[in-house]
Amino acid sequence: QVKNNAVKSNIERLLKKSRKAIETKSDTAKDLIQQAIKAIDKAMQNKILKPNTGNRKKSRLMRKFNTITAK
Length: 71
Description:
By secondary structure, the protein is mainly alpha-helical.
C-alpha cells in the first residue's frame, strides 16, 4: 500500500507539472505529458489505478493541451 501511494502521488505531481507547463505554454509541456501518460499507463497495468480513472486523467490532460495549443 505504501508503494501504491507513492505511485499515485508521483502521478499527481507529474499531472500538476504538466498542467502548469501547458498554461505557461512551456516547451517542456509535451515531454511532461508523455511522462505523465506513461506513469498512468504503468499504474493501470499494475492495477494501482482503475482503467476508467486512468483514461479520464489522460483524457483531461490531453484535452487541456489541445485547447491551449490550438489557440
